[in-house]
């Protein structure tokens, strides 16, 4: 029977491609990691890696085994988090981290709902990137995170999530943008036209490496939505949530740019993330349910 230590060594060598790199991340010696892999190979009865110099190249069977090993390793981490969460302490403050694209009205409605039941509770709303948010969840600095979905099967750390709904992303520019002036009788432009202009992109979209969000080679990263929209009044274009841009469209400062290759809009999901077992505590269980309930009314 394999051990969790052997599974962890196998997963790390598979992901890092060498015993040395895996040993560094596991905090073990290279010899120890190699012995764990050899013992695991003896257990399963076949070779897992071909050693080529400093590289550990996975065998065909290792490729097939990796997914199942990863599931077991994640379940073990989840069990640890769940057992820790069962020790409930009195809560006076809740920290919610969020991406800049989360609608302001959604956050305001969530706070009012929480306060209606827990009037004593201090609620801190903290703008962070996805990477920062997940680190804060892991070390206990944050309780919940409302972030875009990156479309991956496994999260970056021992957390779970609930899908809240989707935001519509559309392209926007100033009304006298070259994108529109060059086609005065037809505002429909192509991806090629977008690539010739500066693209403003939110920090989280850029760091998450969302493929469709990066179009132009002339990219400028902006952390603040208000600043991004202000810059749009003078230059470039951006893909932004439709709900956030309504006031700018109403004032006439910015206009929607119709893209030939993209019908209507692109959807991006919003999730609420939290540590495994967090929802065993009544306050957080209620809060998560309210976040889901309120989001279902305002998101598709």
TrEMBL record:
Entry-linked InterPro entries: LysR_HTH_N, LysR_subst-bd, WH-like_DNA-bd_sf, WH_DNA-bd_sf
Residue span(s) of domain HTH lysR-type: 1-59
Entry keywords, A to Z: DNA-binding, Transcription, Transcription regulation
Family, as annotated: Belongs to the LysR transcriptional regulatory family.
Protein name, UniProt field: LysR family transcriptional regulator
Species annotation: Photobacterium toruni
């Amino acid at each position: 029977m394999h051990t969790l230590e052997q599974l962890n060594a196998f997963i790390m060598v598979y992901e890092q491609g060498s015993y040395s790199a895996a040993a560094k991340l596991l905090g073990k010696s290279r010899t120890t990691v190699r012995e764990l892999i050899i013992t695991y190979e003896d257990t399963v009865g076949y070779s897992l890696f071909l050693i080529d110099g400093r590289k550990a190249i996975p065998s065909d069977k290792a490729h097939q085994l990796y997914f199942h090993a990863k599931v077991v390793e994640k379940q073990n981490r989840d069990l640890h988090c769940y057992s820790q969460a069962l020790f409930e302490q009195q809560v006076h403050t809740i920290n919610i981290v969020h991406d800049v694209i989360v609608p302001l009205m959604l956050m305001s409605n969530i706070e009012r709902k929480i306060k209606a039941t827990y009037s004593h509770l201090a609620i801190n709303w903290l703008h962070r990137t996805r990477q920062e948010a997940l680190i804060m969840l892991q070390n206990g600095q944050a309780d919940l995170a409302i972030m875009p979905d990156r479309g991956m099967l496994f999260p970056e750390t021992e957390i779970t999530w609930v899908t809240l709904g989707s935001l519509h992303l559309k392209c926007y520019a100033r009304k006298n943008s070259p994108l529109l002036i060059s086609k005065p009788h037809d505002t429909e432009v192509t991806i090629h036209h977008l690539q010739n202009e500066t693209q403003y992109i939110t920090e989280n979209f850029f760091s998450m490496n969302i493929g469709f969000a990066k179009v132009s080679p002339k990219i400028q990263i902006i952390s603040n939505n208000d600043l991004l929209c202000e810059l749009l009044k003078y230059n470039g274009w951006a893909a932004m949530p439709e709900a956030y841009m309504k006031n700018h469209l109403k004032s006439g400062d910015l206009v929607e740019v119709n893209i030939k290759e993209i019908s209507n809009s692109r959807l991006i999901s919003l999730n609420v993330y939290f540590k495994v077992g967090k929802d065993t505590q009544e306050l957080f269980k209620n809060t998560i349910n309210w976040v889901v309930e309120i989001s279902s009314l305002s998101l598709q």
